[in-house]
Specification:
330 residues, six-stranded parallel β-sheet, globular
Length: 330
């Protein structure tokens, strides 16, 4: 039986992840931690969890807890993940894996030293929607893949307009960067899953609206180990009527269009016409990844598809995009 302790029990745990830990066979949640003890107790009582803490070390050292879910903002991922693994406990950590690639490497080093596995919440790798996308590609219906293009645009969130209540996701010291690290990380990790690792990337970032100090617009180009090339554009300050969430995958025999967050119908365009594919995702979106982790930790099932090794590659790509290498033109 995997007996989980949650470090952090905010919004992401309410539906996306939290209930899955209790629904999956061979898994239960025995303790939660939040710095605000009142909120920790409230969460525990609301969800029928027996213990709550306001100190992460106490939860990690609880002998009843034998696995830890780190669901805090990225700036504390490395601290809590390393501490849990050094205490002999496997970790499931929210994405992005850390605020920097260097911190990812530290986590991987401790994982090797302790023999404790670490998994990262890039759950799209397990969703029926994206498994269908992968199947269509692997079945050769697109032919040889030539290009991949990400197009993403959303308007600012309400809190983005108030400097006093800016979300942590646009605070570099907490998030690593802005919304790009929070949202585009899902897309880049998904492409890593579909086409193998990205081996080179180049990007430009900009702050157009000046609502916060980090970037609000990003453009990038990248190349996969397979030779496939790709590009992406992201705007987090777009007009409300121009929301865009599309990934176009073009091959020699056809084109596939899907979305990352909307889960709009998958469109396959070939010489036979246009086909639509509809897939149903679980109520708790992280369910299948959590199930695979629990099965693995309980000694049956293969290694889960989202590990600290694969997730660290996504941080590496994002840092490369943000490095903005420039030629000295004379």
């Amino acid at each position: 039986m995997v007996r989980w302790g949650f470090i952090g029990c905010g919004a992401v745990t309410e539906k996306k992840s939290g209930p899955a830990f209790s629904k999956v066979a061979g898994s239960e949640v025995v303790a939660v931690m939040r710095r605000d003890s009142r909120k920790a107790e409230e969460y525990a009582r609301q969800h029928g969890i027996g213990k709550w803490y306001d100190n992460a070390e106490d939860l990690i050292n609880d002998p009843e807890v034998n696995a830890v879910y780190v669901a805090t903002p990225p700036d504390s991922h490395v601290e809590y993940t390393v501490a849990a693994m050094r205490a002999g406990k496997p970790v499931y950590v929210e994405k992005p894996m850390a605020v920097s690639y260097e911190e990812c490497l530290r986590i991987n080093k401790v994982s090797r030293e302790t023999g404790m596995p670490c998994f990262v919440a890039y759950y799209r790798r397990t969703l029926p929607y994206f498994l269908r996308v992968k199947q269509l590609i692997d079945d050769g219906l697109l032919g040889e893949i030539s290009t991949v293009q990400i197009r993403f645009a959303i308007p600012p969130y309400k809190d983005d307009y108030n400097r006093e209540t800016l979300p942590w996701r646009v605070k570099k010291d907490i998030a690593g960067a802005g919304y790009f690290y929070d949202l585009a990380s899902h897309q880049l990790d998904l492409l890593d899953y579909l086409f193998d690792e990205i081996i080179d990337a180049y990007g430009f970032t900009n702050n157009v609206a000046g609502l916060y100090e980090v970037e609000d617009s990003v453009t990038a180009a990248f190349r996969f180990k397979s030779g496939v090339t790709g590009s992406g554009s992201w705007s987090f300050v777009a007009p409300a009527n121009s929301r865009t969430d599309l990934i176009d995958i073009t091959g020699t025999k056809g084109k596939l269009t899907c979305s990352t967050f909307k889960f709009s119908p998958i469109l396959l365009e070939t010489s036979k016409g246009i086909e639509e594919f509809h897939e149903q995702n679980p109520d708790n979106i992280q369910y299948y990844l959590i199930e695979s982790i629990v099965n693995f930790l309980n000694g049956h099932g293969t290694e889960p598809v989202s590990t600290a090794i694969s997730a660290s590659r996504t941080n590496w790509v994002m840092e490369l995009i943000f490095s903005a290498r420039r030629l000295n033109i004379k």
